[in-house]
């Protein structure tokens, strides 16, 4: 949602802020700011209500899945801890870097 939201918000918010900074036509500025606020809040409110309803519908499925995932993540954390303590994490990291494509290595080491 951020990839779509951010480009749209910038010009609108910039124009509303510019109107407010000029200090002229303050009632119009207040209306523009109110419209901007309602326009920004309404999609988020709708998304929140719909996602809440979906979560309630999927609650039992999510609970049963989460127990298995919790055990899996616990095992993963213990395994990673053992690898770090024994120093084998460096060997795993080296193998992963060698197996990854060059463009991915370049991308992750560029910054």
Structure in words:
It is built from five helices and no strands. With 111 residues, it is mainly alpha-helical. The radius of gyration is 25 Å and the shape is flat. The model has no long low-confidence stretch (mean pLDDT 84).
Please provide the ordered H/E string of secondary-structure elements: HHHHH
Q: What is the rounded distance between the termini?
A: 25 Å
Quaternary form: single chain
Question: Helical region count?
Answer: 5
Average pLDDT confidence is 84
What is the helical fraction, as a range of percent? over 70%
* Biggest sheet details: none
Number of strands: 0
Class per helix and strand makeup:
mainly alpha
Radius of gyration: 25 Å
Shape estimate: flat
């Amino acid at each position: 949602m951020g990839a779509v939201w951010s480009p749209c918000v910038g010009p609108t918010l910039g124009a509303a802020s510019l109107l407010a900074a000029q200090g002229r036509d303050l009632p119009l500025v207040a209306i523009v700011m109110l419209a901007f606020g309602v326009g920004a809040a309404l999609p988020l409110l709708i998304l929140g209500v719909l996602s809440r309803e979906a979560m309630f519908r999927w609650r039992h499925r999510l609970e049963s899945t989460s127990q298995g995932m919790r055990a899996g993540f616990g095992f993963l954390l213990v395994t990673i801890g053992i690898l770090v303590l024994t120093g084998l994490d460096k060997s795993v990291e080296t193998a992963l870097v060698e197996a990854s494509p060059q463009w991915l290595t370049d991308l992750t080491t560029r910054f």
